[in-house]
Amino acid sequence: MVFFDTSVLVTALVTELPNHERALDCLVNYSRKKGDACTTTHVLAETYACLTSLPVKKRISPIDAKSLIEESLVKNLEILPIVTQTYLSSIRRVSNMGMTSGIIYDALHLEMAETSGCTELLTYNLKDFRRLDPQKIRIISP
Questions:
Q1: Is the pLDDT of residue 140 over 90?
Q2: Residue 135: its pLDDT value, please?
Q3: 3-state helix, strand, coil in the chain (%, to 5)
Q4: Which of 14, 66, 106, 130 has its CA 20 to 30 A from that of 124?
Q5: CB-hemisphere CA count at 13 Å for 36?
Q6: pLDDT exceeds 80 at position 34
Q7: What CATH homologous superfamily does 2-140 map to?
């Protein structure tokens, strides 16, 4: 199974962004078969935040962002809920590595991908995910 990070999903949904076609192709190809692609509830929230704040020519309204998420993501990806233990494991990971700030969100995504049996995590944020020293999963860019 493949885990989709926020950076790839936002790029897949917004035609004005660089790499849109490649990200969209990945989303379409991996989501064709049920159980091949997933993301988390937290990624959905991050995607909404990004979509509604992107400085693009035609701003994405809150209603349009909701529709994009429901129609393009929720209907095509397995959406994994995040439990307290996953948050705590992610906090332990970054604190043990001496990391601060927003890297916790990447750690949370990585933890979910690893514990859900994913073999790959798709992201445009390779550097930060690789800093987390993933052991069970390949971090790749579409």
A1: yes
A2: 87
A3: 55, 10, 35
A4: 66
A5: 10
A6: no
A7: 5'-nuclease (3.40.50.1010)
